[in-house]
Structure formats: structure tokens, C-alpha cells
Write a structure and sequence with these properties.
The chain has 241 residues and is an alpha+beta fold. It has two domains: 75 residues, Roll (Nuclear Transport Factor 2, Chain: A); 141 residues, Glutaredoxin, CATH 3.40.30. Helix content is 38%, strand content 19%. It has seven helices and nine strands. The strands form two sheets. Strands 5-7-6-8-9 form a five-stranded mixed β-sheet. Strand 2 and strand 3 form a beta hairpin. The longest helix has 30 residues. It is globular, with a radius of gyration of 22 Å.
């Protein structure tokens, strides 16, 4: 009898949670039409729900009448619970990435692996390339991810770079020296497929760095920070120049 009561209670709680999720999603999409809601889950604070939308986390009540934005911190451990959730939600299955659709740049032995989603006309992507050039012993897989609405003409440049005889050199020439390879001929490019992949992964800007443990970092960061993460993953000493 007790087991049956427990089962019914669990089902009732699950049903309530689903109802709350449905209400929250309905209200938020009506009031914020641009919101792309990826997940809704109970927050660490009783009565609040954690909503992951547009690469950010907000907190709402069960009816989504009230909203809190900003980091939620554990006062005892000083842990940023919001950032911790974002990192978990943005973790990518590294092994599932279609590396054959990326430009491979090998520095040194290339024993460590890094993935970058990049737009050829994104200033922050260009800044990141200068940082990546300081790294050694790394294989960098660059997925061409032009955001045409922000940088008109970026897709054509991405296509030209992909169709170049030496893609890695063409990419480096453009990102570091702004020298665009002359289109030799049209070829089949993965740009559209990578665009769909990026959207699926919730990438709304560039650059985005993905490490071999699936952790993602949005934006350009210094070579020293990238090297520290790579070294931590491989157990090696840092080799940034």
C-alpha cells in the first residue's frame, strides 16, 4: 500500500512539474516572442524555476509572473550556480562533431585538439586567431560559421576559403592579414550544414571554442587561458608562446 501511495505521489509531482513547464513556456513565449527556450527545470531555490533561453539563464515563479535575471550564488560555498548550470547545458558531445567539415590547422605535433566556430568577418574571431597563433602542439578544427545577418558577404568569403587549394593557409591569410584568396572555382561547401549544427547547439554568436571535454567558451580569450585549459586536459605543461 505504501509503495502504491509513493508511486502515486511521484506521478502527481511529475504531472505538476510538467504543468508548470508548459505554463512557463507559454507565458514567456507570448511575452518575449524572441525567446528560444531550450530547457526548464526546478531551481535550487524552492518555488523558482530555471529557464535556459538564448544562451542565458533566468529564474521565474511557476506562473512566470515574476522573473529574476543575474547570477544565483550559494552563500556557503560561494559557487555561482547560474554559471555552473550554463556550463552543463552548453556541454557538447565532442566526438559527435563532424570534423571532416572543418578546416584543420596543425601547430607543432598537434597532439591536443581544439574546435572553433568562427565567422570570417567577425572582429572577435580575428582577435581569437591571433591568440590561437601563439599556441603549440595543437590541432585546431575550425568550423566556418558566417553570420550573414551581421556580416553581409561573410558566407561568400567562407565559401571561397573552403574551396581554396589550401584551406588552412587561406583561412590564416584572411583572418590574420585580411588577404582573401581569389575564388578558383565553386565547390560543395559545408557552410549551410555547419550553420544548422550551430543553431542546434544554440550558438548565437562567434567565436565559440569547444574543448575536448565538451566544455564551450563563447568569445575570444587570451592564449594563456586556452593553453591552461588544454594543459589541464592533457596533464602537460603550458606551451603558449
Amino acid at each position: 500500500m505504501m509503495k502504491r501511495i509513493t508511486t502515486l505521489l511521484c506521478l502527481a509531482l511529475a504531472s505538476t512539474a510538467q504543468a508548470d513547464d508548459a505554463t512557463i513556456k507559454k507565458v514567456l513565449t507570448e511575452r518575449f516572442p524572441g525567446a528560444v527556450i531550450k530547457s526548464i527545470s526546478p531551481a535550487p531555490v524552492p518555488g523558482l524555476f530555471e529557464v535556459y533561453a538564448n544562451n542565458s539563464i533566468i529564474y521565474v515563479d511557476a506562473q512566470a509572473e515574476y522573473m529574476l535575471a543575474g547570477p544565483l550564488k550559494d552563500t556557503k560555498t560561494k559557487t555561482n550556480l547560474t554559471q555552473k548550470s550554463i556550463e552543463a547545458l552548453q556541454t557538447i558531445d565532442f566526438a559527435s562533431l563532424p570534423m571532416d567539415k572543418a578546416i584543420l590547422t596543425r601547430r607543432g605535433k598537434g597532439e591536443r585538439t581544439l574546435v572553433v566556430f568562427s565567422d570570417p568577418d567577425c572582429p572577435y574571431c580575428q582577435a581569437l586567431e591571433k591568440e590561437l597563433a601563439k599556441l603549440d602542439n595543437v590541432a585546431i578544427y575550425t568550423f566556418l560559421y558566417p553570420l550573414e545577418e551581421l556580416h553581409p558577404g561573410a558566407t561568400a568569403k567562407a565559401d571561397a576559403i573552403w574551396c581554396a587549394p589550401d584551406r588552412a593557409q587561406a583561412w590564416s591569410d584572411y583572418m590574420l592579414d585580411r588577404k582573401l584568396v581569389s575564388p578558383v572555382s565553386k565547390c560543395e561547401t559545408p557552410v549551410q550544414a555547419i550553420g544548422a549544427l550551430g543553431a542546434q547547439l544554440g550558438m548565437m554568436g562567434t567565436p565559440a571554442i569547444v574543448f575536448s571535454n565538451g566544455k564551450r567558451v563563447d568569445g575570444s580569450i587570451p592564449a594563456e587561458d586556452i593553453e591552461a585549459r588544454l594543459a589541464a586536459l592533457s596533464g602537460q605543461k603550458t606551451t603558449a608562446r
